[in-house]
Amino acid sequence: MESGKFTLVLGSQSPRRKQLLSWINIPFQILTADLDEVSTETDSEKIAVDIASQKAHAVLKKAGDIKKPFIISSDTIVVLNNVLYAKPADKEDARRILNELAGHTHEVITGVSFLFHDDNNRLREHTFYDSTEVTFTDIPKELMDSYIETGDSLDKAGAYGIQGPSLTFISKLNGSYSNVVGFPIDKILSELAIILGDDWRKTF
Questions:
Q1: In this structure, are residues 5 and 68 in contact, taking their beta carbons and an 8 Å threshold?
Q2: Does residue 194 contact residue 204 with C-beta atoms inside 8 Å?
Q3: Within 13 A of 99's CA, how many CA atoms are on the CB side?
Q4: pLDDT tens-digit profile of 134-175?
Q5: Is 3.40.50.410 the CATH number for 7-203?
Q6: How far is CA 13 from CA 2, 5, 24, 29, 193, in A?
Q7: pLDDT for position 34
Q8: Which of 5, 13, 28, 156 is buried most, with the most CB atoms less than 10 Å from its CB?
């Protein structure tokens, strides 16, 4: 669809997102968005997409020296009973969040934004989201204490990262694993094909 060569830009400093994107074997640059992650939306999916979009537009403002940037930004939220769980403020906040999630199935939603200029220099944006259900066991105090002390909770929505020691209390997963990590790479690749065509790799 697009004939010009894009420069792929990941709008995130997350090492987990960096690793997942690196698996497609296409060079990319990293720029981070400096913004307060606040949305006026009320629907969970729309919140995640809105913040992902805000990140992409913030990154675009910093990408002036990059030739034809194609920005991918994402935002992940955790939801249980219409309550959104962001990153914990500290260890005690992490404990509170995990205790509320324990023994229940919650939803992990990642919103994604593609932001780029087409061959006519028109700014285009494509957004979507993915959703995964994650079930926690009841978390014994000893296991909770041990996990909290790892510090793994502190920089992650919902106070846990599925790729770490939290696997000791995750009993079931329904949906994309990479979505829970924060970057639904399988859906991202399928959406790239929708937007750029089956030969999308040649546009980078």
A1: yes
A2: no
A3: 10
A4: 999 999 999 999 999 999 888 889 999 888 888 889 999 999
A5: no
A6: 27, 24, 18, 11, 25
A7: 80
A8: 156
User: 10-residue block means of pLDDT along the chain (204 residues)?
Assistant: 77 92 95 86 95 96 93 96 92 95 97 95 97 96 92 90 87 96 96 94 92
Here the tokens at position 152 are: 């793994």
Q: What is the CA radius of gyration of the chain?
A: 18
User: Domain limits of the chain?
Assistant: 7-203
- H helix runs in the chain, sequence order: 15-22, 44-61, 91-101, 141-150, 177-181, 185-196
For this structure, is 75 an active site residue? yes
User: In whole angstroms, what is the distance from residue 99 CA to residue 88 CA?
Assistant: 13
Check if the beta carbon of residue 74 is closer than 8 Å to that of residue 13.
no
Predicted TM-score (pTM) of the model is 0.92
Residue 125: CB atoms within 10 A of its CB come to 13
**What is the C-alpha to C-alpha distance for residues 182 and 156, in angstroms, rounded to an integer?**
9
| Helices vs strands, H then E, count in the chain | 6, 7
Catalytic residue among 75, 118, 152, 198: 75
Apex 111 CA angle, 174 and 201, nearest 5: 95
